[in-house]
Records
---
Amino acid sequence: MNLLLIHFAMRASAWSDVSAALRRDSLADDRPNLLRVGCAKPSRRKAAPTIAGIVCGLLLLVWPVALHAEDGYRLWLRYERIGDEKLLAAYLPALGQIVLSTPAGTDSATLAAARTELAAGLDGMLGLKAVVIVVAGAPASAVGEEGYSLQTTPRDGRRTIVISASRDIGVLYGAFALLRLIQTGEPVDKLNLTSVPKIQRRMLDHWDNLNGFIERGYAGFSLWQWFQLPEYRDPRYRDYARAMASIGLNGTVLTNVNANALVLTPAYLEKVAALAEEFRPYGIRVYLTARFSAPIEIGGLKTADPLDPAVAAWWRKKADEIYSYVPDFGGFVVKANSEGQPGPHEYGRTHAEGANMLADALEPHGGILMWRAFVYAADNETDRVNQAYKQFTVLDGQFRDNVVVQIKNGPLDFMPREPFHPLFGAMPHTRLALELQITQEYLGLSVHLAYLGPLWQEVLDSDTFAQGPGSTVARVIDGRLYERDLSVIAGVANTGSDRNWTGHPLAQANWYTFGRLAWDNTLSAEVVAREWTQMTFGRAPATVATVAKILLGSRETVVNYSMPLGLHHIMAEGHHYGPGPWVHHERPDWSSSYYHQADEIGLGANRGAKGSNATGTYAKELAARWDDIETCPENLLLWFHHVPWDHRMKSGRILWDELCLRYQQGVDEVRTIQRDWDSLAGKIDAERYAHVQALLRRQESDACDWREACLLYFQTFAKRPLPAGVEAPAHDLAYYEAVKLRYVPGHPGDY
Ligand code: GCV
């Protein structure tokens, strides 16, 4: 054992080959001890034995092996041994053998992945050498293309669990589901369930540049090592694919929507093909962002006019070429005529004309085109939150069948809270996709804890009233409302090269939850938060209750200390970390005052019928409710109304006092989270415990900064004292205005 450990210390190894790592189970458990006694972190390169490595190994000869730490690499797929004897006794007989049943009944790379996963998981959790066999079964029509069924049934005199599906990928999803049941302590002795994804294309959108930088990425650099591809394939690609498949995601957009046409050249397509090959066994298709001006930049054409036949021909040929490299290529995502990206407007053409031309190029290969509705312009007089509505509703019905208009959850830009985007209720003749942001651009990057499940659930459950009550965003985007045959959901990834994938250890929950909600948009954030916690920190009830409580309240906490009561876009300029209600930019729509509209009378944007009429972009039921300052929900009040400082709130307090106390409440809530987290000492591993604890300390201090900066600034308009219960600021306003952070991760301007 100790010799092995010495060997392991010397061998900075392919830790990321998870199946191998899980087979080395004892090593997996011991490895973090090496870190705890001061060894350098293992790199993925093969290293020669080092003195430090040997010393570490020798130290371990005398080091008690009781210590156990985690660096987060294994995500929610930890497969720790179940210590509960009663549970073990229940599981072992139920898992006599596992049958993988598909119509073909032959092994494939995908079924091999399922077998490897089951072997690793069952061995890890139960010490069971699973008997897994593949059989030809009747096509399981009720589970569709990707669903699965799990059944406990006797077979050949043994208790057996049958995982059946119409395609191999369904079996892989079923295998992950079975392992999840065991990880969460659910019984498996009477299984009889089916599960079918509600949305067809469940994608992670990476805003990764070809130079490795991730726009709005806070967990290191890109996972894609473009320079080393296609020859070298980092084993981490497989681990990424495993993680994706384990939560049911089936698409990855490799590149930033602020696109680089180079990725469409043969030199890069070879690399894209290598990634696609790594991901294919896990059911993940690759997609790319298409720069609209690519025909000029890499094609030598003089124009990118979508109605120019030479341009259309160029894209058709380009699509043919891409499919020759990647036969199952998913399609393109396009950001056009927004934030400086080229688009059809340059040629007097519409978004529909631009999108359709690209869609026609993809159509012969079955590809789809996701055209983003995140459009706004500096010289547009229309309120920014109404611009996409104005540009896109007139195009409803003009898009090809393989076009999906991809819409951010809110009409502005992934704020801590926004109303849902009005386009979800206003384009009945167009396929619409929901774009969520998993990376926390406006919610404290990967420094603050903000579990986004409740935010996403709030959006999915929002009623557009498009076809009467019950026309929720969830039903619009999964195709149920209009019986659509193509449905898409996308999440802007929070992954990166950090050892723990997401920077903040608890931000893994956001990746996990996005996948689970993409599969089943009716799941509650609470259920998913508990599930993730059990898989990530173990099933001890007190731990699960505490972590789930921390997670579930954390988004509202961020809202409270940063942008309460419907405030929005008052963050620092550029990097978007920390407060900046005073930010003044030559572009009004990049200035905070454009959004908060603070003056001596009050605070908040005037978006009712007598203002910019954003309320009028929603169904009449909502417009009426939101137009009236008395019936507008308080959590959106300052989004829709310019509210007098002495307006009486539901609490009986005036707006100014309420605002101050909300900021204070946010700070107090962070402190409660800190105390709750502290109560986990000794109950979870020391490494993640300490990491989160340190980040929470920073979050508390940042929350105080938010409160003080915003209240001092708004006080210059409100001219009222801070009410009792709000802590006195530590600094004056000038101090906060002078704070200039440099090299904030993910900020494209700072490199
Ligand atoms: C990728 C916001 C972000 C940009 C991002 C843009 C988008 O404006 O700050 O970094 O660009 O949204 O979604 O296209």
Note: DSSP finds 24 helices and 15 strands in the chain.
---
Amino acid sequence: MRVFKFGGASVKDAKGVKNLASIVAKSEGNLVVVISAMGKMTNAFEFLIKKYFNKDESKWEEFALIKKFHNQILDDLFDNSDEIFNQIDSFYQRIEDRIERVPSLDFDFEYDQLVGYGELLSTNIVSAYLNKTGQKNIWKDIRFSLKTNDKWRDATVDWELSEFLIQKDFSFDEERLYVTQGFLGATVSDLTTTLGREGSDFSAAVLGRILGAERVEIWKDVPGILNADPQYFENPKKINSMSYREAVELTFFGAKVIHPKTIKPLENSNIPLHVRSFLKPEARGTIISDEKTSDKLKKLPVFILKTRQVLITISQPDFSFMDEESMSWVFGIFSDLSMKINLIQQSALNLSVSVDIPEHGVMELIERLSEQFETRYNDGLDLLTIRYYTPEAIEKEVSHRKVYVEQKSRTIARYLVKSKLKKG
Ligand code: ASP
Ligand code: MG
């Protein structure tokens, strides 16, 4: 069996849904189709949730926009007499009931109870459309099968329980085709949880691993994994194949091709991951698999830009060394504030680290660190990573930029550079 994952961009309008249906029609064998919320609907739900949580009555306008968006797609795909209109209405009713209630004090909890309607709506629409056009399928509410802890917005999968339930619920006894939601799970007491933004890739990997898929296919609007993000670099080239290890490193350094958590479950069961284009379904895409089968011969340099970095430089006030004890205290502060460190450089007197600029700025961090150390910072930086670097690659991307920190290993060169992008 296989797992297909379709992201929001692939189902952003009726044309997208029809295209999905034609891709699914060409597939053979047992298939689970995992779908995200349509278009930018997760963002729209986030606006709605914030307003609801802040008791802002303009939440109704946000809700109206969400309904309008889905209704347009429904009108384009179905006849007025189709049953789907009632089903979608009952979802709207549930959302309405929810946002009429007084919210609890836990934003992350409220978030998870609402945001998942994006996926519930999209999968219902796609499932109904497939059925209507002759592709019989079973719609599954993944929350009954994929179980997690109750860490709202970043839930951890309960593998043992999920394995038991998923194998039972996705048995392929009656149909060859299931349609279900990415991004969502639920606690044992059936409260909805989410796996983190863009988490549907990971959902597909979880299903693939538990069902022993022969392959997981992620359908995107790019031809596969590129050696550079077209947003920041000229002439990106497609990579035909890469190893799990390379894929994990790329996502770790900031490449936004697939959700970072996706690779591990697949690597553990040696299931290939195919990243391919829903705009050009016949094209080859990129295959991520074990080292032996990945193409080692031609290693293209890979460029990854992680934007919005701040470099924090910490030193002892009295000219003493930055020893292990001081560093351990410093790292404790980062961990307390849940800040992920992207780069570390140490010298006799200084410790420099680069982190993503937090939503609320760096002042809290600087204040904490200043309790014991002299602390300086530079913002407006980007972290440029070049994998399989060559002198030409460095010349082209780095030579004209102001470099704050440089680190090189045998295969990877990393530079913290002044950003070319506008602040904000
Ligand atoms: N719809 C969710 C999001 O936009 C999950 C996903 O697309 O993977 O983050
Ligand atoms: Mg999405």
Note: The chain has a mean pLDDT of 94.
